[in-house]
Amino acid sequence: MKTQRLVSLMLVCILVLVAACTSTQPPAAPAEKAAEPAAPAAEAQPTSPPTTAPTEAPTPTAESQPVQAEEEHQPVTLKVMNWSQEQADFYQEVAAEFQKEYPWITIQWETMAQKQYKEALPLMFKSEESPDIFFWIGRDRTLTMAELLDQGWIRPLTPDGTVPNDWLARWPDNLFLEGINIQDGQVYSFPFNDNLIWGPGYMYINREVFRSAGLDPDSPPQTWKELLETCRTIVDKTEAYCLAVPLKGTDLQRTWYPIAGSIMTDQFFDFKNGRFAIDDPKLLQAFEFIKTLYDEELVVPGVNDKTFARQSMASGQAAIYFGGAWMPGVFRKMGFEDLDLGVAPPPYPDNQPRGALKRGNTENKYWVSSQTQHPEEAWLFIEWLTRPDGFFAQEYLKRGFGTLAFADNQKYIQDPAMLKVAEIAPQLRVLYPEPVVACPDIAKSSAYIEAENYHKNWEWEAMVEALTTGQDFAPVAQEIAATKNKIFLETIAKEQSENLQVSISCWTYPEWEYNQDFNPENYSQHKP
């Protein structure tokens, strides 16, 4: 039966090559964790004003209110730029729809390939020809505002810096925070894609393979033990493997995030104890569980990339693939419109405390240029764009481009698999602490970045090597953690000597539980 599986996989290789030549890529996903571009949520939450917003309601000014179309206005052209080329036709529809309400404002929406965009935008600012509104994700997604303020590229969303409370109320609580999208009380951006649904961690199932093994696809495995038994049954009863796990580059993240997050955290940094923690016993246990699947030959063999792994599952050569919220659309674009696709939460460890994946404040992506000559019109467009029941929200969700932080996603999503994803999402992710809120000088600190980038992708490389060679991962994990923590602490001490207001307490939140939303009232306990 193993010979038959390997012959089948050779056919999958050919299909992957054909698909790579003929299929287009899916919409870019802020988070495949992300994003991916990832990537990588809960829209059905109450929409009361964020607790971190000013307690006194800003008095709406003439500048921050939609201007009536029947008034006299000079023609204005707003230039908007981003890198989502596959949505370019949709943006032209958006521009036309907006102009129906504001006939004197013309939206010139330009898209580029991501690499070209990242090269062109700095040159536009240098020559003072920047767009009025632009899309940008910083080196650290959470600190994008700090990066752009340092570059002098952005201004507040409204002409006077204040936004109406009813506009803030379009988002769930705790998404507008000083240091992330607010600076000195002025709002500079807004969460665009949602951070609960849109992210990694879902278990996708080829329901036909489950049925062929005599398993009920509507009763997927809920624990690690059940997943192991399910995999053994699939391999014993069918010609398929159980899991398709990509290992190329950092692709292991698609399987690692849900398994590690189910017992502790999907981050290599432990915000509860303030340390790089790949050597933590819980994370080592998550790795050993994945290794068991390899040791028993339940996983498609080889160091394959994500495209191959996705193709293997969708074509029936494997039963399960772990991936992000964007996968229903990805499978369609790969040509698997008839795939009988199931979606389930990831399994949790048996009889142990649970963890959760990170729900970070990372989706602030649209900014108003400091060079714009039309701040009033830019605000009008942003207000219109973010209407929860407006044209943009309805069509963006109906067309499956992603999920939005300011709209009821389940109300407008039409894909049944995506609706299931949205239903599962609340049990996957919680709000993690955001250190920059407690310690604004973290925006100037390089301690975390220097430690993280000392040997970029070290954890991924070491885990892949251990999975493919059978070597003991624990000693390598201990070396990685010790090295990164030494750099981290030494850099903090150096920055303190240079009067930067940072300390290890900025990154350490012992009162927080891995599977619970962090309480923002506790930030005050961590001021340096």
The average pLDDT score comes to 88
Coarse shape: globular
What is the first-to-last residue Cα distance?
A: 61 Å
- Which radius of gyration do the C-alpha atoms yield? 24 Å
Low-confidence stretches: 14-65
Q: How many domains, as an integer?
A: 3
Number of beta-strand segments: 17
Overall SS class: alpha/beta
The CATH topology name of the largest domain reads: D-Maltodextrin-Binding Protein, domain 2
* Main CATH class of the largest domain: Alpha Beta
Helix content: 25-40%
- The share of residues in extended strands comes to 5-15%
Q: Specify the number of helices.
A: 19
CATH H-level homologous superfamily name of the largest domain: Periplasmic binding protein-like II
How would you write the strand order of the largest sheet?
A: 4-3-5-16-6
The biggest beta sheet reads: 5 strands, mixed
CATH architecture of the largest domain: 3-Layer(aba) Sandwich
Label this structure with key terms:
528 residues, alpha/beta, D-Maltodextrin-Binding Protein, domain 2, 3 domains, 5-stranded mixed β-sheet, 4-stranded mixed β-sheet, 19 helices, 38% helix, globular
